[in-house]
Amino acid sequence: MIIPKKIIITNNMIINEGNNFKSTRNVSDIKKIIDYGDYFQIYFKWPKKTYKFLCQKNLIVEGTINDFEEKFKNKIIKK
Question: Helix, strand or coil for residue 70?
Answer without folding.
Answer: helix
